[in-house]
Amino acid sequence: MKLMPILKELPDHRRKQGKQYDLAHILLFTLLAMLCGANSYRKVATFIKVRFCVLKQLCGISWKKAPGYTTIRKIYLGIKEEELEALFRSHAGKMATLPEGEVISIDGKSLRGSFDHEQDQVSMMMVSAFASADQIILGHIMLNEKEKESEIPAVQLLIKELNLSGKLFSMDALHCQKNAGSCV
Description:
Strand content: 15-25%
Number of domains: 2
Order of helices and strands: HHHHHHEEEHE
Structural class: alpha+beta
Number of strands: 4
Number of helices: 7
Shape: globular
Helix content: 25-40%
């Protein structure tokens, strides 16, 4: 399944004047940059700038110059995370076969570097569902560190949203509590 048509499905909330750079291509180039180790807007912009001629030729784009990191940042600030998550969940759902007896691994991880001591912001946490046979993330839910104790209801919500009832799960011992409730 090709990625570009899927990325083009994401609504672009920018005004017409702010669409010098195509959203789908910025998303694609960001994914490529991240696969090469980029972890900031500056590094994504550097990746695009260094490979601009090749990317331009391969993708058939007519941009006069590579976008700067502030442009990339502004584009990402306009993306609604719920829409992006829904897009990737839809894509993962189409790719996953979920055969009988497949193990769905669910785990929460704190995201490195997501805290901000100056703003008294605690780190973010992501709870993900991973289909082991298909080797694909089916979806995830974001929590902040203060909500860590709500990982149990977040996992239950994720299972419900992804329609994974009746599947075999692998989870942390945190989810083995007697009074944790269940939706599976």
